[in-house]
Amino acid sequence: MLTEKQYNLLMFINKINKETGRCPSFDEMKEAVGLKSKSGIHALINALEERNFIRRLKHRARALEVIRLPRFKPQAIVEEEKKREQALQNSVVSIPLYGKIAAGLPIEAIADETETVSVPFEMVSLGQYYALKIEGDSMIEAGILDGDTAIIRKQNQADDGKIVVALIDNNEATLKVLKKNGDTVKLVPCNKDYKTRTIEASRVKIQGVLSGILRKY
Amino acid sequence: MLTEKQYNLLMFINKINKETGRCPSFDEMKEAVGLKSKSGIHALINALEERNFIRRLKHRARALEVIRLPRFKPQAIVEEEKKREQALQNSVVSIPLYGKIAAGLPIEAIADETETVSVPFEMVSLGQYYALKIEGDSMIEAGILDGDTAIIRKQNQADDGKIVVALIDNNEATLKVLKKNGDTVKLVPCNKDYKTRTIEASRVKIQGVLSGILRKY
DNA sequence: AAAATTTGTTCTATTTTAGTTCTATTTTTT
DNA sequence: AAAAAATAGAACTAAAATAGAACAAATTTT
Q1: Of B138, B162, B179, B216, which is the active-site residue?
Q2: In angstroms, how far is the first alpha carbon of chain A from the final one?
Q3: Interval B9-57: pLDDT, tens
Q4: CB–CB contact A212 B216 (8 Å)
């Protein structure tokens, strides 16, 4: 029925009409639709008039009105809108921010999800995620600084060498590199001023794996 | 539909009509619309009549009536819609990703905005932003790793000590700490394996200031 | 009913804004 | 490759906005 440009123009005129009761000029329309010449608008207007979507007084300034709206949107518009909607929904994910992990609380026990962080969807995939504010510099050599926001993917176990949130003795949560070693695990900081801790595997619960970092300067 | 002046006049007539039941004279209208001559009103009245918004008895004083008003949405609804749209747009911002800076190209010259990154709106404020993929480890001690995505705020100058995108001799763009020193600037890497470069200020153009880091594991 | 007063009409003229038309390209479609 | 549609730009024409004044018709007052 209508081309994309025709549709856009019609909707623009209708919008201005409804919102202000006034009528845009050809130049204003040209801006709105993204043309650089009025002659294009002229053609579009003629097309819209021919198709009975608008009525106008020729040679009169700002003298046209919408008489009906199309029942169907042009395919291009539909697809455009779908894309945009998807982009919007996909582009960002809101995940809970568990500031400092309350000493000893397993992640599951932290019910408070009032604070959240928006994360670009590129940074998460399937699974559950949460965020932590990094405190201290024990991971500084891994490029994780005090104040950074760590994006963590919830997992109960993790591959060797990953940076994980580990809960020790149900009592203490920390972000460290995980090194498995038979019955024991090593929690390796990334800062030579800190010591690696070696602990029986049974005393350590993995709470998640580091999946991203957000930093704001 | 209507021009500004036509619209204003119509609304004025309608208002007087409703409030007093009477009809304003040309002189009253002239005052209300801000004209200095009645002839202008005459023209406007003709236009409104031609467009079927008013009906009148010619040569009769104060003898015109409004037959319709341009229909428009209540302001409240318009604002509501605007807000909603803004809210949607606010949650995430899409900024262009200038992969590796093409050697020697000032940021402005990189027209390609096809690749973009979604950034949580918390990470940007006013101004223009773009993103860069970090290559190399010259800033590793600042917690900026190879592969990180740097969020840069476009600026032509920057405070001392900031991490900036600097273009040297219109030829080479790099991310370094800026140290101003009279006529020269130092571009300080954050890695002891790299040397600080001291360059005449005139040869260095600031292309932006580091405003955030995104990292994905 | 006549006079006085309002009110609307018309004309001239100028500046600004807006719409039309035409030509030439570019892009898209067939 | 040809045809059709979209686009740009400029030149041109028309209308809107504006003012001011003279005049005519309606209304009100006396």
Answers
A1: B138
A2: 51
A3: 888 888 888 888 788 888 888 888 888 888 888 989 888 888 888 888 8
A4: yes
Q: What is the pLDDT of residue A163?
A: 94
What's the mean pLDDT in A27-53? 89
Q: Are β-strands B184-188 and B116-120 bridged in parallel, bridged antiparallel, or unpaired?
A: unpaired
Which of A5, A30, A176, A205 is labelled catalytic? A176
Nearest to A22 among B2, B91, B209 (CB): B2
Is B39 within 7 A of strand D by CB distance?
yes
Which among A147, A83, A95, A159 has a CA at the least distance from the CA of A121?
Answer: A95
* Chain A residues touching residue B216 (CB < 8 angstroms): 122-123, 211-212
Domains of chain B by range and CATH? 4-66 (1.10.10.10), 91-214 (2.10.109.10)
Asked if B3 and A61 come within 8 Å (Cβ–Cβ), the reply is yes
Q: What is the DSSP string of B141-160?
A: GGT--TTPEEEEE--S---T
Task: State which H helix or E strand residue B19 sits in.
Answer: helix B4-20
Q: Write the pLDDT tens digit of every residue in B52-103.
A: 888 888 888 888 888 888 867 666 677 777 766 665 555 556 676 776 654 4
Known catalytic residue: A176? yes
